Task: inverse folding
């Protein structure tokens, strides 16, 4: 018989992956709950779970993680003239996620938005990436380079947004 050391809630970090020992249910730690339970984001949403049943787990492969992402697809029938990539706007459920995961969500949303704007023949649009450390801004500018339809970009709002002009 194998015994594992119980998890101490004080040793957990938001975003740690946990697995129920009995059912193999995997979820991401979202914070402490009530009565010795933890808040766990799973395929079934955010649930309160007893910590005594859990053990640390490896991060699931990307396909599994995407299965419980709650991002809405870009509406193909009408694209607005801007997209705000702040995670609180895109998907508040990920506000406490690891920075790398947040950036992945932001880049994926930007990619979908740019393609939708191209498909809808939008000539000018704005991507709001924020000022921050400049990492997302750099990623967005690199991403725009992947689209030959982009004619040029203009930084706006003290560098917190980029206006994108598509070829005529």
Result:
């Amino acid at each position: 018989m194998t015994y594992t050391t119980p998890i101490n809630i004080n040793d957990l970090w938001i975003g740690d992956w946990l697995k129920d020992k009995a059912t193999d249910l995997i979820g991401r730690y979202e914070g402490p709950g009530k009565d010795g339970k933890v808040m766990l984001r799973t395929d079934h949403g955010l649930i309160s779970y007893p910590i005594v049943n859990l053990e640390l787990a490896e991060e699931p492969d990307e396909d599994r993680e995407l299965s419980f992402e709650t991002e809405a697809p870009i509406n193909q029938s009408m694209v607005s003239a801007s997209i705000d990539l702040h995670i609180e706007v895109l998907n508040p459920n990920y506000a406490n996620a690891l920075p790398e995961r947040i950036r992945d969500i932001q880049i994926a949303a930007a990619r979908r938005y740019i393609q939708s704007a191209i498909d809808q023949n939008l000539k000018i649009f704005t991507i709001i990436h924020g000022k921050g450390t400049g990492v997302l801004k750099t990623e967005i500018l690199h991403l725009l380079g992947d689209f030959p339809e982009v004619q040029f970009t203009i930084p706006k709002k003290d560098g917190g947004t980029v206006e994108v002009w598509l070829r005529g």
In short: The first strand starts at residue 17 and ends at 20.
